[in-house]
Design goal:
elongated, five-stranded antiparallel sheet, alpha+beta
Length: 183
């Protein structure tokens, strides 16, 4: 499912549900304003059904946009775009040769701040989007093998499209992965 050209339908379905729930307050406001402005009638019920269908279509379009954005961000990183992209915690291991590049990339990145730690373990905050909200990250290096492990945890306060909010740790993982591959 996570292969190039294949759409992970479970991820798309979850993005659609998350997007629909994100637009639910607006949908409820529109529906309630129709009920307040008009008497309960068959035409009002038909209008509410049409409104619901229109919002479902707009939510699907928004979910497709978020899905395409996730695919674009993951392109070339080797990080699979699956339903796991919505997990609040993302983790990835890097070979021994990439540990120093990761450390240098995190330290030099404008997206990283509050970088603390020592040679074997670093903690940092990472801004996956342009706003001020961040995900919490840690970089640990196994002393015996030299393998680096990055762990990222999403902040619940992220703003933006609902699907992107849920995938903020995934977006950060893709960005940090690029740091380990370049240099």
């Amino acid at each position: 499912m996570g292969q190039v050209g294949m759409v992970d339908r479970r991820l798309l379905w979850r993005l659609w549900l998350v997007t629909m729930s994100g637009f639910a307050p607006l949908l409820a406001t529109v529906g309630l304003s129709d009920v307040v402005d008009a008497d309960l009638s068959r035409s009002l019920a038909e209008d509410l059904v049409v409104t619901l269908l229109v919002w479902a279509v707009f939510s699907l379009l928004a979910a497709l946009y978020v899905y395409a954005a996730l695919v674009r961000r993951a392109r070339g990183t080797g990080v699979p775009v699956t339903v796991d992209a919505l997990r609040a915690t993302q983790e990835r291991a890097f070979p021994a040769g990439q540990a120093e590049r990761l450390r240098a990339g995190i330290a030099a990145s404008e997206r990283a701040y509050d970088v603390t730690g020592e040679a074997g373990a670093w903690d940092f905050q990472w801004r996956p989007f342009r706003g001020r909200h961040a995900v919490t990250g840690s970089l640990t290096v196994d002393r015996s093998s030299g393998e680096a492990r990055v762990l990222l945890r999403a902040d619940q306060g992220l703003m933006g499209m609902p699907g992107q909010r849920r995938a903020s740790a995934f977006v950060a993982l893709c960005q940090v992965t690029r740091l380990g591959e370049t240099g």
